Amino acid sequence: MPDFIKYLLLASFAYVYVRLLIPYIGFFARYMFNESTQWDKYIEKPRLVFYGIGLLLMHSSYSSILEYSEPLRGFFFYANCLMFIGGIAMSQITWSKRFKNVFIPKIQEKLKKKNNFSLSATNDQLKEMYRGLVNYDMIITEKTDKDDFIKVFKEDWYTHRSKIHFKLDAPSCREFYELFKVVFPKNSMSVIDFFKRSDTIRREDGKPYKYSTVKDAKSRTPISKKSEELKVIFSRL
């Protein structure tokens, strides 16, 4: 039994290493003959990281599996077997289409530095929204004019000094955000981006909204004081 387990583990190592070597030998051969290597660093670097972690798990558990296989000691043996299998999975998942087409783009999107809301609204729609906020006395026009309002939503946050000074309490401003997301679904606007990272949204007293308060406002106050008025404003867009 121990010999069978040992050979099975060694065969697993051989498969994992050979699976990695085959494409990389191709990369190296094309490089040596001045051909395009077709090396995609955005795919291959994460793959090598996953492979490294997977092989580390496999090598770390290999000796322990053999040690606890004779005599068989249940928990330690199976725990290390799971670690070994997990290492194989970590390395082999990198060859799947899902890794290339789903996982890598998602990681790139999360790591990409955001400087704006990537909003799909037109200037006319934002102007109409601004008029609605003014009509219902929800914005301080002396501190936020129409151009400021558009700049905040359309331009990079760090290229201007415009702020939106709302005359809304935290639950009402959170509802404004929620309605905004529904009406303009094509954007990258998260709660933390809107109220904290952008540094463009202000309360009536000129201070930023407290993120912790706004974050929980929806659950604490599902219907805000300005709910009906806000729905009217967004229904006109």
Whole-number average pLDDT?
A: 90
Q: Characterize the main sheet.
A: 2 strands, parallel
First-residue to last-residue Cα separation: 72 Å
Number of discrete domains: 2
Apparent shape: elongated
Order of helices and strands: HHHHHHEHHEHH
Please count the beta strands (DSSP E, at least 2 residues each). 2
Strand order of the largest sheet: 1-2
Strand proportion, as a percent range, falls in under 5%
Helix content: 55-70%
Helix/strand class: mainly alpha
The total count of helices amounts to 10
Radius of gyration: 28 Å
Low-confidence stretches: none
Task: Detail the topology: elements first, then pairings.
Blueprint: H1 2-32, H2 41-69, H3 74-92, H4 97-111, H5 123-135, H6 146-154, E1 164-165, H7 170-183, H8 191-197, E2 201-202, H9 211-220, H10 227-235
Parallel strand pairs: 1-2
Helix pairs in contact: 1-2, 2-3, 5-6, 5-10, 7-9, 7-10
Explain what the structure shows.
The protein has ten helices and two strands. By secondary structure, it is mostly helical. The chain folds into two domains: 110 residues; 113 residues, no CATH class. A two-stranded parallel ribbon has the order 1-2. The protein is elongated and about 80 Å long.
Structure keywords:
two-stranded parallel sheet, mainly alpha, 2 strands, 10 helices, 237 residues, 66% helix, 2 domains
Short summary:
It is built from ten helices and two strands; from the N terminus they run ααααααβααβαα. It is an all-alpha fold and 237 residues long.
